[in-house]
Design a protein that fits this description.
Helix content: over 70%
Order of helices and strands: HHHHHHHH
Strand content: under 5%
Number of strands: 0
Oligomer: single chain
Distance between the termini: 38 Å
Radius of gyration: 19 Å
Number of domains: 1
Length: about 150
């Protein structure tokens, strides 16, 4: 009974080997993501024109969903790490596959420059990411059953 009481007094984050200060950094990253996306994306979704271009609508709705998931990440920063990984990954792909060739060709217009600036904000995510926890939970842990 004393071992149970002792384990209950430990902070939950330390149980996973993630210090509380890192959880606060993760929450700050989710907050930045949530505020930025909710301010920029949800007005676009709620006030779009009926003749919305299909891919613009798809991208906006995906980013709107990402904003909702970031809000959930404020409460569950470790469980929602795939959301931060997704955000980091799509921005890295876009910067490499789209922005870099445009920059090399000298064809970065104002809209592209704004998107580059927004994507570069994701540089904070690798800094706050608990990489050891991620490796333990997603790489070293056994996968779910297939059948």
């Amino acid at each position: 009974m004393t071992s149970i009481a002792a384990s209950e007094t430990k902070p939950r984050a330390e149980t996973f080997g993630v210090p509380v200060w890192r959880l606060y950094l993760l929450r700050a990253a989710y907050l930045i993501m949530a505020v930025g996306l909710n301010v920029e994306i949800w007005p676009v979704i709620l006030n779009h024109r009926p003749e919305w271009e299909i891919m613009h609508g798809v991208a906006s709705c995906m980013l709107g969903a990402l904003a909702v998931m970031a809000v959930i990440g404020l409460r569950y920063p470790l469980k929602m790490l795939p959301v931060l990984l997704f955000e980091m990954t799509w921005k890295a792909i876009w910067l490499t596959a789209v922005a870099l060739p445009l920059w090399q060709a000298g064809r970065v217009d104002a809209a592209t420059a704004e998107t580059i600036k927004a994507c570069l904000m994701a540089v904070i995510f690798p800094v706050v990411m608990p990489w050891r926890y991620l490796a333990r939970q997603f790489l070293a842990a056994r996968g779910d059953r297939w059948w």
